[in-house]
Amino acid sequence: MASLSLKHIYKVYDDTTKAVNDFNMEIADKEFIVFVGPSGCGKSTTLRMIAGLEDISAGELRIDDVIVNDVEPGDRNIAMVFQNYALYPHMTVYENMAFALKTAKVPKDIIHQKVTEAARILGITDYLERKPKALSGGQRQRVALGRAIVRNPKVFLLDEPLSNLDAKLRAAMRAEIIGLHERLGTTFIYVTHDQVEAMTMGSRIVVMRGGFVQQIDTPKNLYNHPANLFVAGFIGTPRMNFWDATLKKEGETVRIRLDSGSELVVDGNTLNRVQSRYMDGRHPVTLGVRPDDVLPWREGMNTTEWAKLPATVTVVEALGGETLIYGHLGVAIPDDPPVGAGAEEEAGKAAGRDTVIIKAPAEFEAHRGDVLDIAVSLRKLHLFDRETENSIIPVVPIENVCACTLGNGFLIFASQRFSLPPALGKAAKEKAAPSAALTLPTGALLLGTGSGRAKVEEAEIIRSEGVTKTLYRLTVGGETVFAAESGEPRFRVGDALPFDLDFSRITVETAGGPPSSGITPLPVENRLNGRFTKEKETDGKGRKVYRFYLEVEDLPVAADEELREKLFSCKGTAIFRTPLSYRFPPHAVTVSPRSGNADARCLPGRVTETLDYGRTIYARITVGNQSVIAPYDGRAGETVNIAIDQSKLTVVDAEADIIIV
Ligand code: ADP
Fold it and tell me: Which of 27, 482, 484, 495 has the lowest CB atom count within 10 Å?
């Protein structure tokens, strides 16, 4: 039984290949986690770092809340099962399973008890006296699992354990491993490149690509809410259909115009999470529809639920239980049709992205060249930004983008007028810019107070990684605006409530105006370049001791014990030679007026500017040639002490651009 915590984990091979970048995950006790992605994406490397078989280049790995970066593999209480299970050929099954315990000098009667118990769990009791060569592939894999079980590990790591088995046996062994996980009640981490295996086994799945985590979620959420085009295409067979398109809002509806010529008209409400900037009829997007959600059109289908599009059939695959139809949108037959095996892949690659895969009932008859009407479910549409490839229908919207008017001391959006705080005096003094774009993070709406008026249309509770949030869908002067708060809902559907804006977090861009006429948000993160240093000093009893410092502009700040330990465990003494970037949010800084001598725990600074945002007043404070922003009501020119909460500090290797802790 074990929980795992992976924070900012990196793997750099040969100081060049970044095989794993900034892997972050909290794994609860008894979870079944699957790492999935194409070959070379960093799955095995991550697993091997957890096992201790590979050094962690940067980051922090905890098992049951203990940092194990430097703990030997044998002391981590982890068992690993590989694809090549490498049983000892000259030993019996019993001896193979007993081997590790024997080496660890476990008493014979306990070994016997453990081996027979593991054999019973795995159903291999009858083979205990056989040699591996007298076993089938599936039985050998069970012995490999048995060798792991007898050690009572806290965590099971499995690296493609089934890829040497044939398809039928693989499916059977999958079910056995799921059953084994339930019986043992231990944490499992399983690596595979096979998305079907991932979807059937994982309680949560980590999708990786090119060393980067793409999405971590339950199988259902990955399928229904893929975060980007890669996840959408990787999860699900046959692959999701992708069609290039543009969106245009027209009253209560949205017109989805496919580049290939067809059109779908959707009720605007179903796309209310899509930012309005995508709705101008020009912004390139990609529409995604799963083959499960495309059917042959039937008379009487509801046109508010289904869109009717013409398509031309190129290949028909009768699979018995269902028929897959490959084709193209529109009525033209392509010159070079994909045929037979690999047709799906070919179809996906075809230029113009106008290919379509349809899941039809088994009895449905179609032939190459037929022109069909197909029905596309309007309730199951996925949309992606064509440039960033990210989903534009977020589960939790992070920001609203709306039109606004800025100037003459006010910001007006959705018919609501807000006075600009003194910090935005420059924008306030400008003449009103009538066509500006406001980017309003969902967390920057302060509900329950202020001059704005909103109505709650929907309140959704979102729980993730032990954190509860409420997402409100509001109408503000006829526009839809999302607001997020931590905790359970404070307001109910139908409530009318006042709200204010956190002006330190908004962005306003004015079309064509000088840069000064917009609003930029306060940085969410301060950055100070520096080093980590040590000094030999004499303590109160005359002994020589080392003291450790964060150094910025040659100014030392005493390092916390915990931070020092973390930095050492990740970098060793190389930490003293590494140029660092210390990063921390403004709220991690406590500023106090400076009087008398320097405090070893603070940096000296000078206030250059105060930024009055109404609710909070911030100060811009210089430290040598660098500067930070922190909440502080001071005056320009004042000298201050800056104390940074080191538990909120992110330390980055500035040269390699790797987060150390
Ligand atoms: P996966 O398990 O997803 O197939 P790996 O974790 O094995 O991927 O590999 C991730 C990346 O790291 C690949 O680019 C691979 O070539 C590289 N890599 C793996 N092992 C080493 C090594 N020992 N030295 C250098 N590069 C490696």
Answer: 495
Measured from the Cα of 17, ligand 1's closest atom is 26
End-to-end alpha-carbon separation of the chain, Å? 26
Mutate to test the pocket of ligand 1, among 45, 84, 163, 191 (most ligand atoms within 8 A of CB): 45
**Kind of pairing, strands 479-486 and 467-476?**
antiparallel
> pLDDT per residue over 304-344, tens digit each?
999 999 999 999 999 888 999 999 998 865 555 555 555 55
Picking from 118, 120, 127, 81, the residue whose alpha carbon sits closest to that of residue 98 is 118
By the 8 A CB rule, do 101 and 79 touch?
no
For residue 48, the ligand 1 atom closest to its alpha carbon is 6
Give the chain's count of helices (H) and strands (E). 11, 40
Angle at 156 between CA 21 and CA 568, to 5 degrees: 45
Q: What is the pLDDT of residue 348?
A: 46
pLDDT of residue 374: 95
The Cα 250–Cα 55 span in angstroms is 56
Position 145 scores a pLDDT of 87
Q: Which pLDDT score is estimated for 251?
A: 85
How many C-beta neighbours within 10 Å does residue 431 have?
A: 10
Ligand 1 pocket by Cβ (under 6 Å) = 13-14, 17, 19, 37, 39-45
Bridge partners, residue 461, by sequence: 470
Report the phi/psi class of residue 614: left, alpha or beta, with left for phi > 0 and alpha for psi in -120 to 50: left
What spacing in Å lies between the alpha carbon of 41 and ligand 1's midpoint?
7
pLDDT confidence of residue 467: 87
Q: Which of 368, 293, 379 is nearest to 337 (CA)?
A: 368
Residue nearest atom 26 in ligand 1 by C-alpha distance: 13
Q: Tell me, what's the pLDDT at 350?
A: 45
b/e string for 6-20 if b means 16 or more Cβ within 10 A?
bbbbbbbeeeeebbb
Mutate to test the pocket of ligand 1, among 17, 160, 189 (most ligand atoms within 8 A of CB): 17
Instruction: Give the pLDDT of residue 140.
Output: 87
The DSSP line for 114-161 is HHHHHHHHHT-GGGTTS-GGGS-HHHHHHHHHHHHHTT--SEEEEEST
Q: How far is the CA of 40 from the centre of ligand 1 (A)?
A: 5
Cα separations in angstroms, 643 against 44, 420, 533, 583, 594:
41, 30, 18, 13, 12
What's residue 194's pLDDT?
Answer: 93
**To which residue do tokens 């970048």 refer?**
21
Q: What residues contact residue 179 under an 8 Å CB cut-off, 6+ apart?
A: none
Say if residue 421 is preceded by a cis peptide, omega within 30 of 0.
Answer: no
- Taking 70 as the pLDDT cut, the residues of the chain under it are 1, 85, 332-353, 426-434, 512-516, 597-598
Ligand 1 atom with minimal separation from the 35 CA:
3
| Whole-number Å distance between alpha carbons of 317 and 360 | 10
**Tokens at residue 461, please?**
């509770």
